[in-house]
Write a structure and sequence with these properties.
CATH class of the largest domain: Mainly Alpha
Number of strands: 6
Strand order of the largest sheet: 1-2
Radius of gyration: 42 Å
Distance between the termini: 118 Å
Strand content: under 5%
Low-confidence stretches: 196-208, 218-224, 475-499, 614-620, 747-752
Structural class: mainly alpha
CATH architecture of the largest domain: Up-down Bundle
CATH superfamily of the largest domain: Gamma-tubulin complex, C-terminal domain
């Protein structure tokens, strides 16, 4: 067949500037009539002339007449082009010309490889940083082609233009292409294109939808699971720059490439630092956004997921220049993002006068100033605009029963409803009663602008059961001091627990609607800590009310007031009075300790730290961060839980038994009154009373002895445990021991 090679257009790729002209046929396939004269037949001058002409073709990626691709090279194979072709010289060339020509052919191989590298790395999936790097390299190759045109002009017009002159003119360019080639090979290996067929396992966790979708984006045809883009590319160039610091030409070249490649990354960085937004269509920025985590879910977020996981750092995409300040970069954008969602950032405002590349001397200053500005903006938003201290004071009134005259009134009004089993309580009725009480003139709550946010709820899991679940699941014994409590999700009840129904007083809990952005500080998990403390304090207050009711009975009911002639009966009465007094002392001392010695001092400390957070000046640097403020709040609650004995499983069990004993005793007072009247012969003579029954007195003494033994034994165990813990970890328990020992005086004889 006749030799008629045709050029054609090839299909589009996602690299917009990639060549679409088909590869020319190999020179070795040309018919014999088109083959050149053998080199042996040419003189030395003629050989030099044709070799120079051939070299200019080869330098631009084409085969010459006498310089051709080796037989193993296939220009249609992408990997062959990326590694660069090897060339062979036709036989017969003079040795003096062959060695010099062979040396110069390396530049041609590098040019072809770099050109193929640009076509591959310019594809969409490799991201904006790779695209910017390719644009910078393409600009250098354009200068290279200009040099080829100048050399061709010299060859045509200058008779003194020899192979040695050509070699001298191409030396600097050859060195540049060698550096570009080595960088390209390193990048292609990092992308898995030139590695073995086995892909290295990915470090990314693909447990969630966001990561799965992101990994699927990279599985387009020709893509590898390994992907070097964004900060990884900049890191690779930076490391190469450090290793080539002794070569001035290479250093200049790599510095230029790093500057140009970092420009799109700096655009993303500045957008994040100054607007709190992420424009990262290719997933190459060091901050990753989980768009599936929305702020609308904050009211059900028991793991602080929105704050902790919505924005995270991709450690493998952090460039070395940002390694030392990556946490500041993350926090600056996170803070500003919150301010932006509250309308505090003008995103339409153009970002001006900021560094546009990594080598700008203001680079680190830009990060630090953006971090300081974002921190002060969010602090001002929380502390001033949204009045965080006032919100926390409001929470204290409701959840810690601080100045709680309104709540005592609410408990009195709702007593009939709260005595029912928890499942039968009418929550709507209780909410109505609470709304009435909160609007009562003269109470603290009447002046509270946030009283509409307080809601009544019922939790059918008993407080001790709930706390024991938390302690057992999260290891709260060890972690409470640092506030590392990860899961406050209310557990579902087991079938065994469903049988033990609790009444409304034990199930009552308050809920509180916190608006964004305060819900970041008072999140669902911190609000649950408030609820745990509230339920504990409420149980103590309710028990105190029951014991005071027992004291009222002891003071008013005729059976208790009447002095009997039976000494056994009088002794039983005194034992009942003493035990009631000891229990009341125990409960009142415990309430005083929890409120006056635990919550109040820690609260004052928290308020003191909050007040120092708001007085930050822009130019003085960051004195206090929002994360420190949030941690202070968590630490405050964790300390209160620990010092109120709610994080130690042993203390929880002992305390629960003592309080159960006291509650049972208080509820038994009316039965005691009937026993006393039944056992007193003098009261029986007054009429309307059954004849005295001596067995009733025996039962009364037996019950009282059981209550006293139970209370004294568990109180002794509690005091011993508190003394041990005070000596080993929680010093504040010493004062509680001193207070509670007064309640134990009555039992010293039996348990001394």
């Amino acid at each position: 067949p006749a030799w008629s090679p045709q050029a054609s257009l090839i299909a589009h790729t996602t690299a917009p500037l990639a060549s679409r002209v088909s590869v020319p046929p190999l020179a070795s396939l040309a018919p014999q009539s088109l083959q050149p004269r053998p080199l042996e037949e040419l003189s030395l001058e003629e050989q030099e002339k044709v070799i120079i002409e051939d070299l200019l073709y080869v330098f631009m990626g084409f085969e010459g007449q006498f310089i051709r691709y080796v037989g193993t090279y296939n220009p249609l194979e992408e990997k062959d082009r990326l590694l660069g072709p090897s060339f062979r010289l036709l036989p017969g060339l003079d040795p003096s010309l062959r060695d010099l020509t062979t040396t110069m052919l390396r530049m041609a191989s590098h040019y072809v490889a770099v050109e193929a590298f640009i076509e591959v790395q310019s594809r969409e999936m490799y991201g904006a940083v790779n695209h910017a790097l390719c644009a910078a390299v393409r600009k250098l190759l354009k200068d290279y082609l200009v040099l080829m045109a100048q050399l061709e002009h010299q060859m045509l017009t200058n008779s003194a233009f020899t192979l040695h002159v050509l070699n001298l003119h191409t030396k600097p360019t050859s060195h540049m292409l060698s550096q570009l080639y080595n960088l390209a090979i390193e990048l292609l290996r990092a992308n898995g294109i030139l590695d073995d067929e086995e892909d290295a396992p990915s470090d990314d966790d693909t447990d969630d939808l966001e990561n799965i979708l992101e990994s699927l984006k990279g599985t387009a045809p020709g893509a590898s699971k390994k992907m070097c883009k964004g900060g990884s590319v900049l890191g690779l160039i930076t490391r190469r720059l450090a290793s080539m610091s002794g070569d001035p030409a290479a250093r200049t070249l790599l510095t230029t490439l790093l500057r140009e490649a970092s420009r799109p990354y700096m655009v993303m960085l500045n957008e994040w630092l100054h607007h709190g937004g992420i424009r990262d269509p290719h997933g190459e920025f060091l901050i990753k956004e989980q768009k599936s985590i929305k702020r609308e879910r904050l009211d059900q977020d028991y793991t602080d997921e929105y704050w902790e996981k919505r924005y995270t750092i991709r450690d493998n995409l952090v460039p070395p220049q940002l390694e030392g300040v990556k946490d500041k970069v993350l926090l600056a954008g996170k803070y500003l993002n919150v301010v932006r969602e509250c309308g505090g950032v003008n995103v339409s405002k153009e970002i001006r006068d900021v560094p546009t590349s990594f080598d700008d001397p203001r680079f680190l200053e830009n990060v630090n100033s953006a971090y300081a500005h974002a921190n002060s903006s969010l602090l001002a938003l929380l502390l001033t605009t949204h009045a965080l201290p006032a919100r926390l004071r409001s929470l204290k009134h409701y959840f810690f029963l601080d100045r709680s005259d309104f709540f005592t009134y609410f408990l009195e009004l709702g007593a009939s409803e709260l005595k029912k089993p928890a499942r039968e309580v009418n929550v709507g009725k209780l909410q109505s009663l609470l709304d009435i009480v909160l609007r009562q003139p003269g109470s603290v709550a009447a002046e509270d602008p946030y009283k509409e946010d307080v809601k009544v709820a019922m939790n059918e899991i008993g407080l001790t059961d709930w706390l024991m679940k938390i302690v057992n699941v999260t290891g709260l014994d060890q972690d409470a001091a640092t506030g590392a409590i990860s899961s406050y999700t209310p557990a579902t009840q087991s079938s065994a627990e469903k049988e033990t129904k609790i009444i409304g007083f034990d199930a009552l809990v308050l809920d509180y609607a916190v608006p964004f952005p305060l819900s970041l500080v008072v999140s669902r998990v911190t609000l649950t800590r408030y609820q745990l403390l509230f339920r504990y304090l409420l149980s103590l207050r309710h028990l105190e009310t029951l014991l005071v009711g027992a004291w009222t009975d002891h003071s008013k009911v005729v059976g208790w007031r009447h002095r009997s002639g039976n000494p056994r009966l009088e002794q039983a009465k005194r034992k009942a009075w003493t035990l009631r007094a000891r229990m009341l002392i125990f409960v009142q001392q415990l309430i005083y300790y929890c409120t006056a010695e635990v919550i109040e001092p820690n609260w004052q400390g928290l308020m003191g730290r909050l007040s120092t957070g708001g007085n930050e000046e822009e130019g003085s640097g960051v004195k206090r961060t929002v994360d420190e403020l949030m941690q202070d709040h968590v630490d405050f609650l964790a300390t209160c839980l620990k010092e109120c004995m709610l994080t130690n499983s042993k203390l929880l069990r002992i305390n629960s038994r003592i309080l159960s004993t006291c509650t049972a005793y208080a509820n038994y007072t009316s039965s005691f009154s009937r026993y006393i009247i039944s056992a007193d012969p003098e009261l029986a003579k007054t009429g309307n009373v059954a004849p005295p029954d001596p067995s009733k007195l025996d039962k009364l003494e037996d019950l009282l002895q059981k209550f006293e033994d139970n209370f004294s034994r568990h109180l002794k165990i509690l005091l011993d445990t508190l003394n041990y813990l005070a000596a080993t970890e929680t010093v504040v328990f010493l004062s509680l021991c001193a207070r509670l020992s007064t309640a134990g005086d009555g039992g010293e004889r039996e348990f001394g």
